Amino acid sequence: MSEKELSKDESLMLISDMITQAKRNLARGGSFYFLLWGWVVLFANLGHYIISKYALYPYPYVVWALTIPAAIASMWYGARKSKYAQVKSHLDSVYGLVWLGVMISVLIILFFLGKVSYNTNAIILTFAGLGTFISGCMLRFNPLIMGGVALWVASVVAFNLPPMDQYLVGAVGILAGYLIPGYLLKKVEGEQV
Amino acid sequence: MSKFRELDPLLHSQLRLAVMSLLIGVDSAEFVFIKEKTGATAGNLSVQLDKLSTAGYISVVKSFKGKKPVTSCSITKVGIKAFEDYVNNLKQYIE
Description:
The structure holds 2 protein chains of 2 kinds.
Chain A: H1 8-24, H2 30-53, H3 67-84, E1 87-88, H4 90-111, H5 120-139, H6 142-159, H7 163-192
Helix pairs in contact in A: 2-7, 4-5, 5-6, 5-7, 6-7
Chain B: H1 14-24, E1 28-30, H2 31-38, H3 42-54, E2 58-65, E3 68-75, H4 77-94
Antiparallel strand pairs in B: 1-3, 2-3
């Protein structure tokens, strides 16, 4: 590209082309979080359900300890991605802040387990749906938008079931809301490289 | 008298307009990113970034990532206004 003068049409085409080029690099790597949390939460939900149902161990909630290394891995990945990013956008920051908001909301719910009559899974599915829906809208990625809706549907179903069965609904919701859209997003990210 | 306003000569050049168009949608971008997206040579890009920076349209920050020197550019408020005026003036020619 040189310093040559442009015609009016060339100017418009150049502006539009460069804005598209910059956009392509925005909010990439999001599939990592959906796949990591998708598998961790799916495994924890199923683990909790199976351990409780068959009374394999007196403390079934121990499987949720898996979320601790997942949280550390997420923070490590996020810090690394930010450090090596050649371009920083407001969209990237907002994307991260949406999920920080979801995480804070989930922690508040977990803190008041008893006050929400142990319907934690149903409430967490509502927040997960919100985060996924907003992420899908920000990335203009329809499978994630549908994933958010799937999580909301799962939350409605979960509210109508006893807490124990909510773990099964949670696993199905996470499969539809995180894992399937997460793999589709990964495929698209791979094609963009 | 013509109703058309002059296009900003600083922006009405291929590489400088490309840089401003890249930076308008992001918080900041590194030199290597701009170089890759515009396909410019490092020398020419440096000269044009200097011109935009001197005009106050962009800010250029030099830092280190580990031991590697990094140059980051971001558009300033003056730059955003100049870019918007440029696009609005361009629209007059098209309409």
